[in-house]
Amino acid sequence: MNTQFPAERILLGPGPSPVPARVLRALGAPTLGHLDPQYLAIMDETCEMLRQVFQTKNALTFPVSGTGMAGMECIAVNLIEPGDEVIVCVNGVFGGRMKDVMERCGAIVHPIEIAWGEVFTLDQIAATLDRHTRTKLVGIVHAETSTGAHQPLAGLAELVHGRGAMLVVDAVTSLGGHELRVDDWGIDAIYSGTQKCLSCPPGLAPVSFGERALARMDARKTKPQSWYLDVSLLRKYYLGGGGGRVYHHTAPINMTYALREALAIVLEEGLVNRIDRHERMYKRLRAGLEAMGLAYIPSHSLHTLNCITVPAGADDAGTRKRLLEEYGIEIGAGLGVMAGKAWRIGLMGHGSTVRNVDLVLTALREVLK
Ligand SMILES: *Cc1c(COP(=O)(O)O)cnc(C)c1O
């Protein structure tokens, strides 16, 4: 196998998504020092663009070094102290991971588990809050990439705040692809990743913390067990303030260039247009898949990830292998309990185009003949 030159795949899986040439060129700009005033200005611009994309005024909005999971861990280690009671909504792999991560922080987790592919109702969450009145935080996945389920968030913050808890949201596969309004929806802490609907290579995890989350961190009696992800240290670098910018760890300089360029592309297109494009491409793909007799698994599908049943008699791994080898198209296999039973077709960011939708439909039709 030739390993010298990575192939130009068409990435239509659960991430990473295709990266525009502009973003790859930005990655190759000269590496600055992490305290160089020019770099700090670039970081400030990047954080400001992240606020626009998250639709928030939260000052504490920045890219954590690491992939989406680093964003999840960053929020968990900073907002949870050992013994805290939390509720985690589990309807797929990523809700399950959130439960695991929060337990590792010492939380007493009360999971709400429903069938994979289903979404939570406000009543289910309210009933669990009623049973566990000391709950400090509710964690939920907006876009469950393992099942393609799109979790509605309307009214959830009001419910959670009314019981004195905070709302934490995983937006790894929704930021830049689905409507997501951090301030209007009352989300207290949120994390995402660069390689899904922002169409940047993997390596940074945008996060944002609101007032309630700041107050919780200020009230901590114990230090977060992760030094690397301790926001009280990170904010002295990312936000500066009284003591100026203080070195914590060397920021991934070139990844910041790439993220800034990816965010510039998002804002040039406009959030409304971008979300509308994801919806139109989803409808186009769905119509084509259903016309071929392929069935969607989730009751409430994402526009960014299409999870369908592997049809009876089809060879799961063989089909994906042929798509990759003959068409250069990557789609995702089923994850967790859906392994061998589902295919996941991502239409994320730069990948969500008429050309890709029609290409994957044609290729699937040929391979499944
Ligand atoms: C991809 C994903 C993650 C993890 O992100 P990594 O970049 O793989 O670390 C977390 N949550 C959801 C919903 C995801 O889709």
Features:
14 strands; Aspartate Aminotransferase, domain 1; globular; alpha/beta; 369 residues; binds pyridoxal-5'-phosphate; 7-stranded mixed beta sheet
Question: How would you describe this structure to a colleague?
Answer:
The chain has 369 residues and is of the alpha/beta class. It has 2 domains: 10-16 and 271-368, Alpha-Beta Complex (Aspartate Aminotransferase, domain 1); 21-267, Type I PLP-dependent aspartate aminotransferase-like (Major domain) (Aspartate Aminotransferase, domain 2), CATH 3.40.640. It is 40% helix and 16% strand. The protein is built from 12 helices and 14 strands. It has helices spanning 21-27, 37-54, 68-79, 93-104, 122-131, 156-162, 211-218, 231-238, 253-269, 271-291, 316-327, 354-368, and strands at 10-11, 60-65, 85-90, 108-113, 135-141, 143-144, 149-150, 166-170, 189-191, 204-209, 305-309, 329-330, 332-333, 342-346. It has a 7-stranded mixed sheet, with helices on both faces. Strands 11-14-13 form a 3-stranded antiparallel sheet, with helices on one face. A two-stranded parallel ribbon has the order 1-12. It starts with 9 loop residues before the first strand and ends with a helix. The mean pLDDT is 97.
CATH topology of the largest domain: Aspartate Aminotransferase, domain 2
Instruction: Look at the structure and give the mean pLDDT.
Output: 97
* Total discrete domains: 2
Approximate shape = globular
- Helical amount among residues, as a percent range? 25-40%
- Taking the alpha carbons of the first and last residues, their distance comes to 28 Å
Query: In angstroms, what is the radius of gyration?
Result: 21 Å
CATH architecture of the largest domain, by name, is 3-Layer(aba) Sandwich
| Low-confidence sequence ranges | none
Oligomer: single chain
The CATH superfamily of the largest domain turns out to be Type I PLP-dependent aspartate aminotransferase-like (Major domain)
Q: β content, as a range? A: 15-25%
Number of helices: 12
Counted beta strands: 14
Report the order of strands and helices: EHHEHEHEHEEEHEEEHHHHEHEEEH
Task: Note the main sheet.
Answer: 7 strands, mixed
The main sheet orders its strands as 2-10-9-8-5-3-4
CATH class identity of the largest domain? Alpha Beta
What structural class results from the helix and strand content?
A: alpha/beta
